[in-house]
Amino acid sequence: MMKLNGITDVFFDLDHTLWDFDKNSALTFNKIFEINNIDVDLHHFLSHYEPINLQYWKLYREEKIEKEALRFGRLNDAFLAIDIQIESSLIYKLSDDYITHLTSYNHLFDHTFEILEYLNVTYNLHIITNGFEDVQHGKLTKSNIHHYFKTVTNSEMVGVKKPNPKIFNYALELANTDVSKSVMIGDNYEADILGALEIGMDAIFFDVNNVTIDNNLKQINTLLDLKKYL
To answer: Which Gene3D superfamilies match (predicted)?
Structure first.
């Protein structure tokens, strides 16, 4: 495993890469169910919600649905999947409550601070995220990692989502760098890895779930493994 040469700029995905979305999301659901007096087994709910949420995000990335449809649909479908009927007005309230309270919890993946401190000495660090601007800003600031990143590019700024080349090119321009000097790190094979590779940017797949997709990829299982490449 060889160190990458000539890299000056390192781009990270945020959710599922640095910010532990699943853990923080579960804690948020527990809170908003209590607020709204919804008696449901959290584990049972999440076992249906999480794959449904991923599917809605795929549709959102592909420009097939808007933000509002994602926020309503993922919740509505999850309750239907566990045979619980919820009024639409309450679904909308839960959706709003979820966004309001999501950044109350800011668990990061193991070694996030350590690896950012290590990389920050040598590289310019950046974020490219498909998440919503207001929410992502809250995650970065409340988890106290915002100061590590020179630029933050989100899909709402650009009008397209990863893996669309436009968001990567926008991020490169914002960072005042180019593909030959840059590397993308993320957990989503389609959005982060294929998106970066498509424009000629190097990429490192964060295989957090140990589901190796392509043995030819540069990949890590923990954030500290980045030291092998950078």
So the answer is: HAD superfamily/HAD-like (3.40.50.1000), Putative phosphatase, domain 2 (1.10.150.240)
* Segment 197-224 mean pLDDT: 91
Kindly state whether residues 26 and 14 are assigned to the same domain. no
Q: Is 194 exposed, middle or buried (0-12, 13-18, 19+ CB in 10 A)?
A: middle
Same domain, 77 and 114: no
pLDDT digits (tens, 9 = 90+) for 19-31: 999 999 999 999 9
Q: How confident is the model over 97-128, as pLDDT tens digits?
A: 999 999 999 999 999 999 999 999 999 999 99
Domain with 28, as residue range(s), is: 21-102
How many CB atoms within 10 Å of residue 217?
14
Side chain identity at 225, as an amino acid letter?
D
Rounded Cα–Cα distance for residues 32 and 30 (Å) = 6
- Measured distance CA(117)–CA(98) in Å, rounded: 31
Claim to verify: residue 175 and residue 97 sit in the same structural domain: no
d(CA 144, CA 166): 28
Residue 1's pLDDT is what? 61
The CATH code of the domain that includes 36 is 1.10.150.240
Q: Do the Cβ atoms of 61 and 130 come closer than 8 Å?
A: yes
